[in-house]
Write a structure and sequence with these properties.
This protein is mostly helical and about 100 residues long. Helix 1 runs antiparallel to helix 2.
Length: about 100
């Protein structure tokens, strides 16, 4: 019944990793909120920083790209960028909604 629970204390290496990941996340969120750099570049930079800091191995970092869900989102980003650059959505919305009769 009564087993004494061992308290786990973080070693200096684990504390350094926690602080490192915290700083990477703060910079990542600040950069995403500033909206001056694309989200894909920010996320890849954060992943690269975690791999450079040996928080995750290169095999672990790259293995996420083999997931079908990640690849689906990647394809949707490409399709959305293509629709935005070609103006296809603007043409469709003008046909659907028509032209406004007044400025208000």
């Amino acid at each position: 019944w009564l087993q004494e629970e061992e308290e786990e204390t973080a070693t200096e290496g684990e504390i350094w990793e926690m602080v490192y990941v915290g700083v990477v996340l703060i910079f990542m969120f600040a950069t995403l909120l500033s909206d001056k750099v694309g989200a894909d570049l920010v996320m890849l930079s954060a992943l690269t920083a975690c791999m450079a800091g040996n928080i995750v191995t290169v095999a672990e970092g790259v293995s996420g790209f083999s997931n079908e869900g990640v690849l689906t989102v990647l394809v949707l980003f490409v399709v959305a960028a293509g629709v935005q650059l070609t103006g296809g959505l603007d043409w469709y919305m003008s046909k659907l909604l028509g032209r406004p009769l007044n400025a208000a």
